[in-house]
Write a structure and sequence with these properties.
Elements lengths: L2 H28 L1 E5 L11 H10 L3 E8 L5 E3 L4 E3 L5 E3 L5 H4 L18 H10 L3 E6 L5 H14 L5 E5 L2 H10 L5 E5 L4 H9 L2 E5 L5 H9 L4 E4 L4 H9 L4 E4 L10
Parallel strand pairs: 1-2, 1-11, 2-6, 6-7, 7-8, 8-9, 9-10, 10-11
Antiparallel strand pairs: 2-3, 4-5
Helix pairs in contact: 4-5
Length: 261
């Protein structure tokens, strides 16, 4: 290869690299990074501290799990059990708000004294820090509690910065019938019957890594629906999700890079 050909080849490779970097940067700018249950790798999940710290380190939004106390208060807990500093535990559905918040939670992350967080407080934090809010409904919801979810967001924030998620299709179907314009997202695994139904009904999707087929992501995107993945906790997963052009990446870590601030 003569010097001229070598120069042309080097310039071509350099141009290609710049183009790829530009595509990656553009995609990263488009994709919102969502703190799974708040910044839960460093702070106690689904607590005020985990949500506020997510904002402080630079996440674009948070995800949380909403359940219902015995007396009907919308509480944040993954699964259904709170674990307390005194060694006891309570099932959120079996106790009242007053009982659930009477003592501090077990916190193995920081010295902060933390108590169970309500859905209302979550939306206030999202609003105050201008974060995107994923609202995952755990279990089947009665109509009045679905109404309360909608009313709380209407009162405190904006639906442009919120999305309701659920693994229970019935929750989303009931909401779509009553609120046709509400942003709704089915949360699932790979391509199964419910994911297919979500696509047919026009729900956005939040799908589990590594159970996702790229063709499924593309199918939602072709219909103009938003796509998210959970939970991307290393560089490889984050890079793959970015290459798929998803709208949201959920992670326990700061952008999946295990960075502590």
């Amino acid at each position: 290869m003569n010097p001229w050909q070598l120069l042309v080849t080097m310039l071509s490779v350099f141009t290609l690299l710049l183009g790829n970097m530009g595509v990656y940067a553009k995609q990263e700018e488009k994709t919102r990074f969502i703190a799974h249950r708040g910044f839960c790798s460093q702070y106690l999940e689904n607590t005020e501290e985990a949500f506020i710290k997510a904002a402080e380190v630079g996440f674009d939004g948070c995800e949380t799990d909403v359940n219902i106390s015995k007396d009907g208060v919308l509480m944040l807990v993954h699964g259904s059990v709170y674990y307390y500093a005194d060694g006891t535990s309570m099932n959120v559905n079996d106790y009242t708000y007053e009982e659930l918040t009477a003592k501090p939670l077990k916190n193995d992350f920081t010295d902060t004294v933390l108590y169970p967080c309500t859905f209302r407080r979550y939306i206030e934090i999202m609003r105050d820090h201008h974060l995107f809010a994923f609202i995952e409904l755990k279990g089947e919801y009665p109509d009045d509690k679905l109404q309360e979810i909608v009313d709380t967001v209407d009162e405190l924030y904006t639906w442009e910065m919120c999305s309701i998620q659920s693994m229970q299709m019935e929750n989303l179907v009931k909401l779509r019938e009553k609120y046709p314009e509400l942003p709704l997202m089915f949360c699932g695994g790979g391509y199964d019957a419910e994911v297919k139904e979500a696509l047919e009904r026009g729900f956005d999707c939040d799908l589990k890594i590594p159970d996702i087929f790229p063709s499924v992501i593309r199918a939602f995107q072709r219909k103009g629906l938003r796509t998210a993945v959970w939970t991307a906790d290393d560089n490889k997963m984050v890079s793959w999700a970015l290459s798929m052009g998803v709208d949201f990446i959920e992670s326990d870590y700061l952008w999946g890079l295990n960075v502590t601030k």
